[in-house]
Model the fold of this input.
Amino acid sequence: MSLTIVWLAAGLILIVAELLTGTFYLLVLGLACLAGAATAAITGSVLLQTIVMATVATAGITWVHRHRNLRQQPRMAPLDLGQTVRWEAWIDEGARLARVSYRDAAWEALIQGEGGGTPGEVLFITDIQGSRLTVSKRAP
Done:
Protein backbone atom coordinates (compact mmCIF):
# COMPACT_ATOMS: atom_id res chain seq x y z
CA MET A 1 0.00 0.00 0.00
CA SER A 2 1.47 3.37 -0.93
CA LEU A 3 2.07 6.10 1.63
CA THR A 4 -0.33 8.40 -0.20
CA ILE A 5 -3.23 6.03 0.51
CA VAL A 6 -2.15 5.62 4.14
CA TRP A 7 -2.09 9.42 4.62
CA LEU A 8 -5.48 9.77 2.88
CA ALA A 9 -7.05 7.02 4.99
CA ALA A 10 -5.70 8.52 8.22
CA GLY A 11 -6.92 11.99 7.22
CA LEU A 12 -10.41 10.78 6.32
CA ILE A 13 -10.71 8.73 9.53
CA LEU A 14 -9.73 11.75 11.61
CA ILE A 15 -12.15 14.04 9.77
CA VAL A 16 -15.02 11.55 10.25
CA ALA A 17 -14.08 11.24 13.93
CA GLU A 18 -14.21 15.05 14.10
CA LEU A 19 -17.75 15.03 12.78
CA LEU A 20 -18.74 12.61 15.55
CA THR A 21 -17.06 14.43 18.42
CA GLY A 22 -17.27 18.13 17.59
CA THR A 23 -13.73 19.20 18.43
CA PHE A 24 -11.70 21.10 15.87
CA TYR A 25 -8.46 19.42 16.90
CA LEU A 26 -9.27 16.22 15.03
CA LEU A 27 -10.19 18.24 11.96
CA VAL A 28 -6.81 19.95 12.05
CA LEU A 29 -5.03 16.60 12.39
CA GLY A 30 -7.09 15.20 9.52
CA LEU A 31 -6.17 18.15 7.32
CA ALA A 32 -2.52 17.71 8.31
CA CYS A 33 -2.69 14.08 7.19
CA LEU A 34 -4.20 15.20 3.88
CA ALA A 35 -1.27 17.62 3.51
CA GLY A 36 1.01 14.65 4.15
CA ALA A 37 -0.84 12.74 1.41
CA ALA A 38 -0.34 15.61 -1.03
CA THR A 39 3.35 15.66 -0.18
CA ALA A 40 3.54 11.88 -0.66
CA ALA A 41 1.96 12.25 -4.12
CA ILE A 42 4.56 14.87 -5.09
CA THR A 43 7.66 13.35 -3.52
CA GLY A 44 8.57 10.00 -2.05
CA SER A 45 10.51 11.42 0.89
CA VAL A 46 8.97 10.11 4.11
CA LEU A 47 10.93 12.69 6.09
CA LEU A 48 9.43 15.56 4.08
CA GLN A 49 5.93 14.09 4.40
CA THR A 50 6.31 13.89 8.17
CA ILE A 51 7.69 17.43 8.40
CA VAL A 52 4.79 18.83 6.33
CA MET A 53 2.22 16.93 8.40
CA ALA A 54 3.80 18.03 11.70
CA THR A 55 4.07 21.66 10.57
CA VAL A 56 0.43 21.84 9.42
CA ALA A 57 -0.74 20.07 12.60
CA THR A 58 1.25 22.37 14.91
CA ALA A 59 0.10 25.53 13.14
CA GLY A 60 -3.53 24.37 13.07
CA ILE A 61 -3.67 23.27 16.68
CA THR A 62 -2.06 26.53 17.78
CA TRP A 63 -4.64 28.48 15.77
CA VAL A 64 -7.58 26.47 17.19
CA HIS A 65 -6.27 26.85 20.75
CA ARG A 66 -5.86 30.63 20.42
CA HIS A 67 -9.23 31.00 18.70
CA ARG A 68 -10.99 29.09 21.49
CA ASN A 69 -9.29 31.18 24.18
CA LEU A 70 -10.34 34.43 22.47
CA ARG A 71 -13.96 33.33 22.18
CA GLN A 72 -14.40 32.32 25.82
CA GLN A 73 -16.51 34.82 27.67
CA PRO A 74 -15.54 35.85 31.18
CA ARG A 75 -17.62 34.01 33.71
CA MET A 76 -20.36 36.11 35.23
CA ALA A 77 -20.91 36.16 38.96
CA PRO A 78 -24.12 34.37 39.94
CA LEU A 79 -27.07 36.74 40.05
CA ASP A 80 -28.11 35.33 43.43
CA LEU A 81 -25.12 36.79 45.28
CA GLY A 82 -26.26 39.33 47.84
CA GLN A 83 -29.87 38.12 47.87
CA THR A 84 -31.51 37.44 51.21
CA VAL A 85 -32.56 34.09 52.63
CA ARG A 86 -34.46 33.22 55.79
CA TRP A 87 -32.96 30.76 58.26
CA GLU A 88 -35.27 27.82 59.04
CA ALA A 89 -33.42 25.09 60.98
CA TRP A 90 -30.12 23.35 61.53
CA ILE A 91 -29.31 20.28 59.47
CA ASP A 92 -25.93 19.73 61.19
CA GLU A 93 -24.99 22.45 63.64
CA GLY A 94 -21.42 21.15 64.08
CA ALA A 95 -20.80 21.37 60.32
CA ARG A 96 -22.68 24.71 60.17
CA LEU A 97 -25.20 23.30 57.66
CA ALA A 98 -28.69 24.71 57.83
CA ARG A 99 -31.93 24.71 55.91
CA VAL A 100 -32.83 28.16 54.57
CA SER A 101 -35.75 29.49 52.59
CA TYR A 102 -34.93 31.19 49.30
CA ARG A 103 -37.38 31.88 46.48
CA ASP A 104 -40.10 30.02 48.37
CA ALA A 105 -38.04 26.82 48.42
CA ALA A 106 -35.92 25.07 51.03
CA TRP A 107 -32.18 25.12 50.33
CA GLU A 108 -29.17 23.65 52.09
CA ALA A 109 -26.79 26.37 53.20
CA LEU A 110 -23.38 26.58 54.78
CA ILE A 111 -23.44 29.29 57.44
CA GLN A 112 -20.30 31.44 57.59
CA GLY A 113 -19.39 33.42 60.67
CA GLU A 114 -22.03 34.34 63.20
CA GLY A 115 -25.65 33.89 62.38
CA GLY A 116 -28.27 31.23 62.24
CA GLY A 117 -30.26 29.86 65.06
CA THR A 118 -33.29 32.11 65.08
CA PRO A 119 -36.12 31.06 62.75
CA GLY A 120 -36.78 33.81 60.26
CA GLU A 121 -33.33 35.39 60.66
CA VAL A 122 -32.25 37.13 57.45
CA LEU A 123 -28.92 36.08 55.95
CA PHE A 124 -27.18 36.99 52.68
CA ILE A 125 -25.93 34.68 49.93
CA THR A 126 -22.16 35.03 49.58
CA ASP A 127 -21.42 32.06 47.31
CA ILE A 128 -23.07 29.20 45.46
CA GLN A 129 -21.46 25.80 44.98
CA GLY A 130 -23.70 23.46 43.04
CA SER A 131 -27.04 23.43 44.85
CA ARG A 132 -25.61 24.55 48.19
CA LEU A 133 -25.68 28.18 49.21
CA THR A 134 -23.06 29.81 51.38
CA VAL A 135 -24.65 32.49 53.54
CA SER A 136 -23.57 34.95 56.20
CA LYS A 137 -24.99 37.73 58.30
CA ARG A 138 -23.04 40.32 56.28
CA ALA A 139 -23.90 41.22 52.72
CA PRO A 140 -21.11 40.49 50.20
Summary: The first strand starts at residue 84 and ends at 92. The chain has a mean pLDDT of 88.
